[in-house]
Q: What sequence folds into this?
């Protein structure tokens, strides 16, 4: 096992005994992720500072979302959750398959995967879902992250006329809220967070932002991903598969909401 310099809970170190542990640098979250291998079994250790415990960067929040989703859709199994005065930690079992990002040259596969992902997520009952990812919550989170100095100040905001600073962007977002059509939302539905097995069955990872939100949040992320990584025509095909008419303003709103994370 690699030597880890973090003072994590003892249960975590006990789990890692005798395992191969390698840092996984995929993603931009402040959480740290390590791939763990023991024989043929693969796991992931993920931990975040308690500084983020009231945000969607919280590993404690993500562990709760995964446990609530278990049995509803395919997500990583939470094998261990532990915390101490500094860290929130979880160990999950790796999901089967490969990320959808490995298949971006296959337009039809990507369109079908995103359409099926939306269908699965939006048919989950939210009657007992305690995880709130509505616009008001996300805007309050942005305010908190701005105060903490934990937002992305390198984001290219030039694509939004009149927006020069993160504070400008937050003001623009607050001025354009709308009535939400609530469903369960992944919250970060990109091709690196969707996995396909050898029968194209879907698994979801990285659900820290999961919760009750407007149905266009995930649709917007899927459209943006398809446009950037596959093709613009793929967006039209995807929306057609969903049977919905495009809502460009709503899509743009959720793209803006994600800019500083």
A:
């Amino acid at each position: 096992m690699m030597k880890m310099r973090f003072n994590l809970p003892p249960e975590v170190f006990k789990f890692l005994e005798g395992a191969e542990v390698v840092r996984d640098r995929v993603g931009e979250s402040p959480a740290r992720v390590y791939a763990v291998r023991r024989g043929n079994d693969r796991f992931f250790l993920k931990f975040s500072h308690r500084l983020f415990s009231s945000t969607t960067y919280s590993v404690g929040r993500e562990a709760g979302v995964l446990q609530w989703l278990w049995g509803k859709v395919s997500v990583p199994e939470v094998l261990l959750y532990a915390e101490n005065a500094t860290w929130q930690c979880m160990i999950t079992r790796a999901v089967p398959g490969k990320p959808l990002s490995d298949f971006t040259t296959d337009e039809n596969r990507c369109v079908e995967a995103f359409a099926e992902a939306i269908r699965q997520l939006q048919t989950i009952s939210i009657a007992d879902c305690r995880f709130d990812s509505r616009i008001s919550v996300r805007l309050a989170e942005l305010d908190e992250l701005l105060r903490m100095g934990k937002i992305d100040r390198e984001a290219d905001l030039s694509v939004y006329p009149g927006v020069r600073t993160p504070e400008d962007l937050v003001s623009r977002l607050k001025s354009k809220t709308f009535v939400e059509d609530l469903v369960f939302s992944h919250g970060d539905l990109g091709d690196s967070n969707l996995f396909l097995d050898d029968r194209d069955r879907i698994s979801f990872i990285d659900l820290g932002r999961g919760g009750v939100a407007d149905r266009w949040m995930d649709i917007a992320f899927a459209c943006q991903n398809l446009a950037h990584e596959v093709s613009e025509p793929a967006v039209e095909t995807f929306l057609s598969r969903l049977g919905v008419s495009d809502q460009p303003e709503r899509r743009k709103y959720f793209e803006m909401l994600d800019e500083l994370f």
